[in-house]
Design brief:
The protein is an alpha/beta fold. The protein is 40% helix and 10% strand. The chain has a 5-stranded parallel beta sheet with strand order 2-3-1-4-5. Helix 3 links the parallel strand 2 and strand 3. Helix 5 packs across helix 6. It is globular and about 45 Å long.
């Protein structure tokens, strides 16, 4: 997206495109999950789980999500690992996780037991510092599995790639310094008090 303000409208377009499929939307923070649930509950029937919800609530929402084709679950990374949902067809990262390992676990929810699915990640083309590192991580992951990197991702990742530093001149060995060192010494009488 051009800037963060466009994320919601783009998310709604994706949800409309895949309406009728089971969709999992990830957000980074609990407050983001609450916001997305409010924005998407009426139009898309979104339900949400995060660590601030009770265990009973999380289990009920997860059971509803698993049982209903065409349902939409919004979650933090509490749903990224160990979640076994059959026929999960779409994962959307509204916000990138803190680590690329968590990203792999998130998008891997669609590929369980040989199933295939779609995964989307919404990043801002603007000056978003965090999104630049996210683009760099996505680029590395796609390169590692032999998938094509979208030009927008490569462009966003470019300033955040770590380059190798030029070789520094080797520091001279200690004897060269010893020869020019002053010949005075310090003597401690009582090292505890000095």
């Amino acid at each position: 997206v051009k800037h963060d303000g466009e994320k919601m409208s783009h998310l709604k377009r994706l949800l409309t495109k895949y309406q009728g499929k089971r969709i999992l939307v990830f957000a980074l923070y609990k407050k983001s999950v609450n916001y997305l649930e409010q924005q998407l509950a009426q139009s898309f029937g979104a339900i949400a789980i995060s660590s601030d919800k009770s265990q009973q609530h999380r289990e009920a929402m997860l059971a509803q999500f698993k049982a209903t084709q065409g349902s939409l679950l919004v979650a933090t990374d509490v749903a990224a690992r160990g979640l076994d949902v059959k026929q999960l067809e779409v994962v959307i990262n509204y916000e990138f996780p803190l680590t690329s390992d968590d990203y792999v676990h998130r998008i891997g929810r669609t590929g369980r037991a040989g199933a295939k699915g779609e995964a989307y990640t919404l990043l801002s083309e603007g000056d978003g510092y965090f999104d630049g590192f996210a683009a760099r991580d996505i680029e590395r992951i796609l390169d590692n599995v032999g998938q094509e990197v979208a030009p927008q991702i490569a462009k966003k990742a470019e300033p955040f790639r770590f380059r190798t530093k030029p070789k520094r001149e080797k520091i001279p060995e200690a004897p060269a310094y010893v020869a020019s060192a002053p010949s005075k010494s310090v003597k401690f009488v009582d090292s505890d008090s000095d």
